[in-house]
Amino acid sequence: MVTNSYRDAYDRSLTTPDKFWLEAAGRVSWSQAPHQAVDSARAPLYSWYPDGVLNTAFNALDRHVQAGRGDQDALIYDSAVLGAKQRYSYAELTDLVARFAGVLRAQGVGKGDRVVIYMPMIPEAAIAMLATARLGAIHSVVFGGFAPKELAARICDAAPMAVVTASGGIEPSRRVEYLPAVAEALALAGAEGTRVLVKERDGFAAQRADFAGWLDWDEQMAGAAAAAPVDVSATDPLYILYTSGTTGSPKGVVRDNGGHAVALGWTMENIYDVGPGDVMWTASDVGWVVGHSYIVYGPLLAGATTVLYEGKPVGTPDAGAFWRVIEDYKVNVLFTAPTALRAIRKADPEAALLARYDTSSLKTLFAAGERLDTDTYHWAARILGVPVVDHWWQTETGWAICANPRGLDSLPIKPGSPTVAMPGFNLGIVDSSGAEVDAGTEGNIVLRLPLPPGTLTTLWGDDDRYISSYLQAFEGCYATGDSGYRDGDGYLFVMGRTDDVINVAGHRLSTGSMEQAIGQHPAVAECAVIGVADPLKGQRASGYVVLKSGVDLSVPVLERELIALVRREIGAVADFKNVAVVEALPKTRSGKILRKTMRQIADGEEYVVPSTIEDAGVLDQLMAALRPADANGAG
Ligand code: COA
Ligand code: AMP
């Protein structure tokens, strides 16, 4: 018997996965319905719905128009930085997407071709994503806060037919000119001839002469013919999304079409409890996985209304911005990062601004991107009076590994925990030898293969890297890179990363790539970057450098140069603002820098001096450099 309970759904997903996921596939409109769910022929590489054929953009748009909901709002654009608001019905959005697909097709973009999208939070970003999907092409969205070099690395790897961009983005403190960054990235990638489609925005310079392949968005759209959705195999890639690994080279997470549509459809109903006509607002950026899944695809696949917000939680204009948006659009579900809630709380501790708005439409607040700390949880639950649900996931999984499924049972919330594993995620906590640990004991969080639909199928063009990065550490498992423990009720508590990836304001960053940037400075002999606890942003990148002997440069000048270097090489998003010069870095005898010990010292945690350390005296010197940095950063 099929009941609407979490336990039942979870058990069925593991005991009869084919049946469970074929049933879930019923939410999708297929050109050819699949008869097979998981395909294990290339294990440990798995794929989903090998005989299914569909178009994701059709499922997100046309299908709802055909079902008679063409007049319903599909997307609401709210720009707190411009004071602009615009509603797009399903019929209007379908038309715009079909015409922009026509623009791309006229430039030769077809099935399997890549399109890089580097845009601020404007509707054209979502339109470009959906138009690419409509052609069966593959988009790769790059967050606007990344510097040209990072954009270039993604262009080199994805080899796009076209780059879609805008002339500028608006940050509260400054205007961000996109075009010089795109021109520099194309030059760095040796791809100067690439077609560049530009949405021009008022007040930004449009340097057409800098681009061999310049095309103006508005001019092209004026004469564009609508393109019909192109059928693709369920296993064909929908998008590549690059994420930080432990090395400087980003990993191109590949998402398929079929598994993605099924999985997101399942989550909309069962995790978020959002259906046709409901309003979901995910206050993130389309450059992150959260934006892909729950600004663009999830709400539209479900026939709901999505809000695309260009602004910040505070300062645009104040800490009441979120409550204003909830009132304006009768938002039912808000999804944001804990750091945004902490920013609001810092500016308006008693949420006095909340009283100005009617937020009674709000049913649930979801948080992800980093652990929802218990203080922030209690504050948000108290001021909003709705369930506040932490859920844990990664770019790689595309949807929540652990959550509290509000469309199923609504399990009791335990502050500090993202609740329990979602269907298809066979979660284990193992020690370094791969043996399962007892409840209450911290270990590596792993997911037994196969992963459910909608999760990554590989890394772009590099199956070997996918296997070596994720599937080799623990036999038969995907290693999440996170550590944590389960309590006696099976609730998960995520404690942090086991690698050198850090999380700053919900953004995942590689300390390795920051070290690479710093290492380029001629005065630097060696360096280490660690994530130090930060009360607003969760973590903050802090760099410790050892100078080459005989360097004649004042420390403040050097620090400024290093901060500028990281900003230039990685981007403002790294938010790298702390650097200290030290005499030496603590290392093991084999030369490995003891980053974990450094972080523990900086965070004031207890630490054990590893027996393999080369020179224990170095730690004493470091204490002085690390602790003041912590004190400076607080608040
Ligand atoms: N384009 C260009 N630059 C960007 C950018 C973008 N899309 N997004 C951020 N930046 C820049 C900012 O302007 C800032 O630059 P600055 O050093 O010149 O001031 C820098 O990157 C750091 O930005 P940010 O992390 O936004 O810090 P902040 O101090 O300006 O704001 C918060 C703090 C908490 C309000 C902000 O981090 C926030 O809204 N976080 C939510 C994050 C989120 O939604 N994450 C998604 C995961 S689900
Ligand atoms: P990203 O791929 O950028 O979404 O970052 C994923 C990483 O962020 C995870 O591996 C975790 O380390 C962290 N993370 C995301 N959501 C949560 C959460 N709800 N609780 C704890 N950590 C989280």
What's the gist of this structure?
The chain is α/β, with parallel strands linked by helices and 635 residues long. The protein is 32% helix and 24% strand.
Give the key terms.
2 domains; 32% helix; seven-stranded mixed sheet; alpha/beta; Rossmann fold; globular; 635 residues; five-stranded parallel sheet; binds adenosine monophosphate; single chain; 19 helices; binds coenzyme A; GMP Synthetase, Chain A, domain 3
What this model shows, in words?
The protein is 32% helix and 24% strand. The chain is of the alpha/beta class and 635 residues long. The strands form 10 sheets. A 7-stranded mixed β-sheet has the order 5-4-17-16-18-19-20, with helices on both faces. Strand 9 and strand 10 form a beta hairpin.
Number of strands: 32
Percentage of residues in strands = 15-25%
CATH architecture of the largest domain: 3-Layer(aba) Sandwich
| Unreliable residue stretches | 628-635
CATH fold call of the largest domain = Rossmann fold
How can the largest sheet be summarized?
7 strands, mixed
Name the bound molecules: coenzyme A, adenosine monophosphate
Mean pLDDT: 93
Sheet with most strands: strand arrangement: 5-4-17-16-18-19-20
Radius of gyration: 24 Å
End-to-end Cα distance, whole Å, is: 54 Å
Overall geometry comes to globular
Number of domains: 2
Can you say what the CATH homologous superfamily of the largest domain is?
A: ANL, N-terminal domain
Which CATH class of the largest domain applies here?
A: Alpha Beta
